[in-house]
Amino acid sequence: MKIDRLVSMIMILLDKKRIGAQELADMFEVSPRTIYRDIDTINMAGIPVHSTSGVGGGFEIMRNYKLDKKFFSTADLSALLMGLSSLSNTVQGDELVNALAKVKSFIPADKAKDIELKANQIHIDLSPWMGNRNIQPYLEIIKTALQESRLLTFQYSAHHGNKTARIVEPYQLVLKNSHWYLQGYCHMRSDYRLFKLSRISNIQIKDESFIPRDYQKPILEFEDILETMETKIKIRIHRAVMDRVLDYCAYEEFAPDGDEYYIVDFPFIENDYYFDVLLSFGNKCECLEPLYIRKEMKRRIHDIAVMYEN
């Protein structure tokens, strides 16, 4: 059972007068049966949760109850502070500031220094070193649209630079592989789409609101699909680019080739993205095999050379 779900449930119960099991189940994406087990666990921990059946029923913490600060261990509070502090570096807003303040209120004075030390042992900074300066203000605009269920309009640059005007019902912000995405229902495509924020421009909130649909979550895991598409190629790299190559494969794929070079079994998919990755290593990388990939690399390098000659 995840402590973060239990803590979140306690915070919700403290904040709301009453909430139903199904609403909690939808909120945490679990079954109502799991919610009932969680409520039992919270009761066993000494927090009196009362349930009411029938229309308008649900769970509520007994009136006049105050949460004992000893309910959270040092490890619990350290983990909560670490997560909230890391998220606040990327997503701004009063709700995160308030959540941090509430968590800090549970810290006993005699444990404050120890908890702060443990919370700072792991620092997660999701902001890029450099890049699109519009991302942060766009996040704030999308957050507002999400909270108020209002339509968004923007220009979107798809593959090969095709730019289209979109009207979108926003449903979720997604952070995947250090990139932000917006999952929403696109009126142009009459379907759900995942939009990369770095490809969005001229985003605006419309005055028009929308009635939320049955939400379709984005597919974010492609391991099974990629395994069928992926192949291993052999490349010879100079040690100067070893740190960059390690972003794509494990050190176990490296075999020394003299003092300066390595032979690497490199995971590869035959598309422009992966050819561009190899080209980005410049003259510090040579594709050895298979032969048809090597020939395609040679053709692309030739086209680049011709462009510069002209």
Automatic annotation (TrEMBL):
Pfam family, one: WYL
Cross-referenced Gene3D superfamilies: Winged helix-like DNA-binding domain superfamily/Winged helix DNA-binding domain
This protein's record includes keyword DNA-binding: no
Keywords on record: Transcription, Transcription regulation
Molecular-function annotations in GO: DNA-binding transcription factor activity
InterPro entries recorded: CBASS_pafABC_assoc_protein, DeoR_HTH, HTH_11, PafC-like, WCX_dom, WH-like_DNA-bd_sf, WH_DNA-bd_sf, WYL_dom
Keyword Transcription included in the entry's annotation: yes
Domain HTH deoR-type: 2-57
PROSITE patterns: HTH_DEOR_2, WYL
Superkingdom of this protein's organism: Bacteria
Designated name of the protein: HTH domain protein
Organism of this sequence: Anaerotignum neopropionicum
